[in-house]
Amino acid sequence: MSYSIQTALVPAPQSYETVDLQIRQDKIAAIGAHLPPADTVADTIIDTVIDGRDKLLLPGFVNAHTHSSELWQRGLIPPLPLELWLAELYDFAPLDPEQIYLSALGTAVETLLSGGTTVVDHLVLIPGREAETIAAAVRAYREVGIRAYVAPLVQDQPFGTGLPTLGTAQASHSPASASPEQVMSTEAVLDLLRDAVRQFHDPVAGINLVVAPTGIQLCSDALFEGCAALSDQHGLCRHAHLLETKAQKILAQEKYGGSAVAHLKRLGYLNQRSSLAHCVWLDDYDIEILAETGATVVHNPLSNLRLGSGIAPLLKYRQAGVNIAFGCDGSASNDSQDLLEAIKIGSILHNTTDFEYRHWITPREAVEMAALGGATGLNAADQIGSLTVGKQADLVLYDLRSLSLLPRTDPIGLLVLGRPTQAVHSVWVNGRQVVAQGELCTIDVNQLRQELFERSAWQSPRQSAMRQSMEFRYRELMGLAI
Ligand SMILES: [Zn+2]
């Protein structure tokens, strides 16, 4: 298919300009004023002409960290810190691959309708049905047509070892002391990932497998090293949570006798293909390591606020030259997948951390972090992330006549600082139009709504056994009254 988006507004240095943009097959074929309504390269008539008047055209953003199946628990978990929130989450996690499929559909749709064309799904696996979980998410992303980085969330240490012991004998970080709780062995995890890569890794079609140990709190050195080797072998991106909470920083000190970031560097896990979610509790030395290795920070401001994890030192990352992307994080810690909301909060939040307002993030910088920063974090800046001829056509057209984007002032300022609703008019991923007139072209969203409604029920407060068993230890650790 070929498209010509005509007379759309695009950002230019200091201002905006009006251009035509042509898409041929999967790529941006031409950008310029008053392009002829023909595909000059293939010498054919353009299939579809899109009226871009009163619309803003931007590269698609990357939702650089989420967990799709959390959709089933959004709005439900009470205000709790990460460690106790996780216990609630896992006690009631969905166990049916069909649920995984539906929540991946929902995550993709909400990402597309808030400006995202790529999603990184740090996919929580159903115990004993891991391969089916991956297959269900891949099926959903293929059907919706979003560019997907499917990152099976893996660990090889039991949940109970994720908290520091503070010198007590309660837990050890060695896998040999694992409780009866089911944990896959390191080799079994790596076998699962190898199989998934063989079956599903298809970058040309927009489906990418990612190695993604959950984080230092539940993973052995051998798992990080095995994942790094697999990443090198197949050119896969690497992902992980990193120092999301203060408890994790204390744990790193216990487990490694020092910095988690330095340890990951020693293990060879950090390079330009690595993206690390949260990065709230890093110090200046850690930041230098990220800058030097080329790893990307994925900023998830809403979940960091929701779980009380803290404010990531984003302005320091920017000044050190660390690449930054934005993520929504899972829908049970946000509790939405509105990427524009994450970009807004993730930008203005940092005005409170530094009086030097010249360091504050401008709306244009935020948009570039969300698009090109996201692409860079996936080692794909040469393929996506900007309006550049020859790149993949991952594009979003915003309707500047949407009430939430009026009156006419600065389009990107309105988009980032405002509260855009129903502003996405059209979306292309890999040159395929997946949203038109604000509606999905690829799947029936009404049917999805019906399925989500019927497979859920209004809930009353729940009792999480795991949370109760952890609460005393957590309060002691954090110095809270028992
Ligand atoms: Zn996460």
UniProtKB/TrEMBL annotation:
The keyword Transmembrane does not apply. Keywords: Hydrolase. The keyword Hydrolase applies. Residues 57-434 form the Amidohydrolase-related domain. One of its GO terms (molecular function) is hydrolase activity, acting on carbon-nitrogen (but not peptide) bonds. It comes from the Bacteria. It holds the Pfam family Amidohydro_1. InterPro entries: Amidohydro-rel (IPR006680), Metal-dep_hydrolase_composite (IPR011059), Metal_Hydrolase (IPR032466), MTA/SAH_deaminase (IPR050287). This is Amidohydrolase. The lineage of its organism: Bacteria, Bacillati, Cyanobacteriota, Cyanophyceae, Oculatellales.
